[in-house]
Amino acid sequence: MQVILILAIVLILFGAKKIPELAKGLGHGIKEFKKATKEVTDEIHNADTTTTATTVTPIQKLPPANTTAQSNPQPPETKVV
Fold first, then answer.
1. Which residues are CB-neighbours of 11 under 8 A, at least 6 positions away?
2. Is residue 20 within 8 Å of residue 10, measured between CB atoms?
3. pTM, whole model, 2 decimals?
4. How far apart are CA 28 and CA 32, in angstroms?
5. Structural domain boundaries of the chain?
């Protein structure tokens, strides 16, 4: 019942000649959307397989932090002129 009411409103608003054009445009839009999502999922899948196949270089370790520095340094004194 609701679908028939919606179709009747669309028919009244756009007319009988515009409905096939709207459906064709909607079909092209859906086709392009599916194509784009397939390309993105393929690219993600290919990127996932290529990253697992490559070797990862180890991270270089930094030298140890300076342990002689103060743990709570005081700000420099300022003079008021």
1. 19
2. no
3. 0.46
4. 6
5. 2-48
